[in-house]
Design a protein that fits this description.
This is Transcription regulator TrmB N-terminal domain-containing protein. It comes from Candidatus Marsarchaeota G2 archaeon ECH_B_SAG-M15. Residues 17-70 form the Transcription regulator TrmB N-terminal domain. By secondary structure, the protein is an alpha+beta fold. The protein has two domains: 5-82, Arc Repressor Mutant, subunit A (Orthogonal Bundle), CATH 1.10.10; 124-261, Endonuclease, Chain A (2-Layer Sandwich), CATH 3.30.870. The chain is 48% helix and 18% strand. It is built from nine helices and ten strands. The protein has helices at residues 10-20, 24-35, 40-47, 51-63, 79-111, 129-139, 157-168, 188-197, 242-258, and strands spanning 67-69, 74-76, 124-127, 145-149, 175-181, 200-204, 210-214, 218-223, 235-240, 260-261. It has an eight-stranded mixed beta sheet with strand order 3-9-8-7-4-5-6-10, sandwiched between helices. It has a two-stranded antiparallel ribbon with strand order 1-2. Helix 3 (40-47) crosses helix 4 (51-63) and helix 7 (157-168) packs parallel to helix 8 (188-197). The longest helix is centred in the middle third of the chain and has 33 residues, at 79-111. The relative contact order is 0.10.
Length: 262
């Protein structure tokens, strides 16, 4: 059971805010009500929020499935019930919004056209997860062979799974080969992605950089960016150069030949 507000660790409030869509006042009221049911007039003092805000905060918590109001007192819904239900609601809302985004994407791609003479100026510095993913969507559909060495990128693999699956697609035959460090522990979702993509993965010592090289001479070299404030801190460099890509492919094949299958 969570204690009173003044004793509640800050991370409880922060977790409710970041992952379950409660604001500061809502998180405080929910935590206070977990201690005991109380009347509307008691909430302001117990949760340390301004009295004029109490009514709106309680109504919002009711709509989000965290509080029941009997008309006499307010009662917090058990976290074992409220939190999974809230996750399901957020997931449904995201899927509905994402469906609308997909329709907007189709409309925009049809109406917005890039100049036929446009080419990337190299080298390209990519900052942030979204820029890297956008480039993957651009270069992967053109390739039939992709060689990857993965190190620090594995720390953010949960973010990249769906992005890589979407960028690669399923309509084209493509050989994907990945080298990963020997001490990496793969999860069920990783094996599912490997199977879905038909990828080959081998274990090796000494993987230092995150790299990608394709048979169309696209090269991405990435490292985490400690100065970034984004949730997935990453900076990468993109170049398209035949000699450089060929050298990387040759080095990759030598390491691949001695690596261990998973």
């Amino acid at each position: 059971m969570v204690g009173c507000l003044v004793e509640a660790p800050l991370d409880e409030i922060e977790l409710l805010r970041r992952f379950f869509g409660l604001n500061q006042y809502e998180a405080r009221v929910y935590i206070a009500l977990l201690k005991r049911p109380m009347g509307l007039g008691e909430v302001s003092e117990a949760a340390k929020i301004p009295k004029p805000r109490v009514y709106d905060v309680v109504r919002s918590l009711e709509s989000k499935g965290f509080v029941r109001n009997s008309g006499v007192e307010l009662q917090a819904i058990n976290p074992e019930v409220a939190l999974p239900a809230r996750r399901a609601a957020l997931r449904a809302a995201f899927e509905e919004e994402d469906s609308k985004r997909h329709q907007a994407q189709i409309a925009l791609i049809d109406s917005l056209k890039i100049s036929s003479g446009y080419t990337l100026r190299e080298p390209v510095i990519l900052r942030g997860f979204e820029q890297v993913v956008a480039l993957l969507y651009q270069v992967l559909p053109q390739s039939t062979q992709v060689m990857l060495t993965l190190n620090k990128a594995l720390e953010a693999k949960a973010y990249f799974r769906e992005a890589v699956k979407g960028a690669v697609g399923t309509g084209q035959q493509r050989r994907i080969m990945a080298l990963i460090p020997m001490d990496v522990k793969l999860e069920r979702e990783d094996f599912e992605l490997i199977e879905t993509l038909g990828a080959q993965v081998r274990l090796t010592a000494g993987v230092l950089l995150d790299t990608m090289v394709t048979d169309t001479d696209d090269v991405i070299i990435g490292l985490p960016d400690p100065s970034s404030t984004q949730s997935v801190p990453v900076v990468a460099v993109y170049v398209k150069d035949h000699a450089f890509a060929s050298s990387l492919r040759d080095t990759f094949k030598k390491v691949w030949s001695t690596a261990s299958a998973i």
